[in-house]
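Researcher: Let's try something more involved. This one mixes different molecule types, so please make sure each is placed in the same coordinate frame as the others.
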Amino acid sequence: MIEALISGLLLGGFYAILAAGLSMMFGVMKIINLAHGDLAILGAYGVIALTTRTEMSPWLSLCIVLPVMALLGVLLQRWLFARTLRAGILLPLLVTFGLGAVLQNGLYGVFGSEAQSLSNSLGDLAWENWQLPGGIIVGKLPVITFAIAVLVLTGLQFMLSFTKLGRSIRAASSDAEAAALCGMDAHRVHQAAAAIAVVLAGLAGTLLAMQATVSPYGGPTLLIQAFEAVVIGGIGSLWGTLIGGIILGIAQSMGALWDPQGFQLAGHLLFFVVLGARLWRQHRHQIGRPSLSTLFKLRLKKVRRA
Amino acid sequence: MSDTLLETRGLRAAHGQLLAVRDMDFSIKRGEIVALIGANGAGKTTLLRCLSGVHPVADGQVLLHDRDVTALEAHQRVQRGLVMVPEGRRLFGDMSVRENLRVAGDHGRKGEWTLQKVLDALPALVSIIDRPAAALSGGQRQAAAIGRALMTNPDVLLLDEISLGLSPIAVDEVYRNLETLRQTGSTSMLLVEQDLSRAMAFADRILCLREGRIVLQGLANTLSREAVTQAYFGMETVPHLESKV
Amino acid sequence: MTYGKQIFLTAAAVVLLAFVPVFAEASVVDKITTLFIYMLLATTWNLMAGYAGLVSVGQQAFFGLGGYFALRLVDGGFSAYPALLAGAVGAAFMAWVASFYLLRLKEGEFAIGTWVFAEVIRIFVMLDPLIQGETGTSLIALNAVDPELRRSIAYWFTLASLAGMALAMSVMLHSHVGMAARAIGDDDEAAASLGVRVLRTRQAIFVLASLGAALAGVAWLGSAITYLPRSNFGVQWSVVMLFMVLVGGLRSGPGPYVGAFILFALQEFIGHLGAWYLGGLGAAAAFCALFLPQGLWSVMHSIWTKTFHRKSSRRFITALTKRTTS
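Model: All components are placed in one shared frame. Result:
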């Protein structure tokens, strides 16, 4: 039980990286990239292919693949996503969904249906673990993944807060037209944001391949999980995504204790509950009645006064 | 090099199905301050948005420094010295005033206007420099928006409805700031103003718009209040109104 | 073409098509049944996305759910064919229940929400011991029926479903629901302020479209007899629906039918390419969405009117220029 809790927590780091990429694109371009999960799988397969062909360390392969992913992000933004921006919300959803289908089936065509993994190339690291007091066993790799996640998020936060690009990204997310009126070339900023998003996807996919397996049609599951993490943690906050990922991971691990299918199911149900709570809150706000939490606070005040 | 900074020729723009700007020809000289007045729906904001590049032009030309910029996007026009302070200020709410100014400084033209110089010209900003833009009052936001535009070192500054939603005291402050700008002599301004008396008091020239056309233009000190009011409302004879108008 | 003429021609076509199983050989009947199923999926997805602006990538939930309810009913003692119909209706009822929640989501959230919904339904269905998880099961009761008769009944069932749905959609779009849908499509806040019941209108469209997907699903079960959750609840059904509607023509009447034909033809000739074929579908759908937003139907229509009606060629030119300036 405790192990499930810990592994769920560590899983949160992975989700945070995946979700951060999705958020980046949504924040800046207002596009939900339905192919985000598939891009993660693509990155993973890239690293796998490079590692198995050249026998180099997966970490090194990762360093080579990630810049390629960045370039891919720029090109996708330039040739595909930018064109979808002109016509409402429908078009990006349709086009990215189509892109996802292309990626999934393309990967299947090239690599076949067998799930693949990087754990063979990691040597001992793949199964090493630490023994905590109380007989609790924690895998080294999940901890390293979590540490990478924290590092990446910190880096992103630093970039957003203190660099010119970060300011530009925040400004473009806030008000794209006003940003243009400040002299900002929105295309450049969008391309940078897309590059970051795809790099994050590729990183997440590779980390998944290290801990578990990836398969060509695994993209949609990742997309759904990333979206769930964003929704649970609250849209718009980078660290919120980490918290959302952790909560999701814990819920999933708990669900898995009940039934193997419970892993996914717990996440989906939690997602619906959180989304429902948010909708309910908005509804109460719209009809002018206080939300349940405010009601609760008011009740407390009454009790205290009495 | 001619004195004309900004010019339109036969400019036409649509707002949905409606033609909001029709066959507009006018120009602004270096250092000149022009006030654009007119009732709501006359086409003032659409005109400014066309000039700044955020609204598509149906026909005609916009010339900046005698060069045709009609096909250029908004950020490209900023690089050439044409900047708009949009209606509603449109500051980046989550970012501080300093960051708002820095974004414009990052992307706009480099020149005399640095962060320090903008703060010198708009001292009210100094105390709120690190506050998030969403937490400012209307007057403070307006000052910040003007400051942000200045960071791009504009030759022509377009100001859309700067008194909108502000108290009279805040509007006084805004005009004091604009007066400071006028003294530097380097920036032309085209401002959209609902308040006729302020417009006539501050501007060099008045342009009155009605239904997308210029119905009256002239130097502020030569135009009579009656003539302007008639043009504004489109009436032949105007009943005697209080001097407030 | 007047409305009355349209109805007459459609009815005539349906009657003619009903005779096909009598004359045609087995494989032809099977193939046309499949084509009808594609048409059902395409027209109902078009109804939701084209007229109500609801992009759902979770319709496979109802495709599979109809079959699941049918299997459960048969297991409980019902006879096969009524169970199929009841299963579809049951799935539509679930759509109605789910709509209270799903339709309050905004576009992007709605798309992913429907996808998650389909996944949740799939997981619950797979947990039912009757379905046996990944293995799936079959509608064994149908094995008792003579194959030729079974094939014909599947054909007629699908044809009837398609005709019925087409009629229902036509009625709906011409009714106040259709007008409300157009108003909502333009500006849903403005429509609501005028008293248009946004949720009710969307619900009506969502439930009808889901009924169509469910009918397609039970028709599929009636034809194939086997029920594999991964495949019946698979997202590839959404890929296929997307392709048909985008390539055929979003929002147009004949567009989805054209798209269904194209899908069918592609399936016949290059379906053996497997994954590349599916990937190609996705690419084609994305391409059409970007560059041919009116779909192939509008291209065909333009060519037809240009060739056969000289007056219409003027309209063709203005239509073409309108598209380039919009």
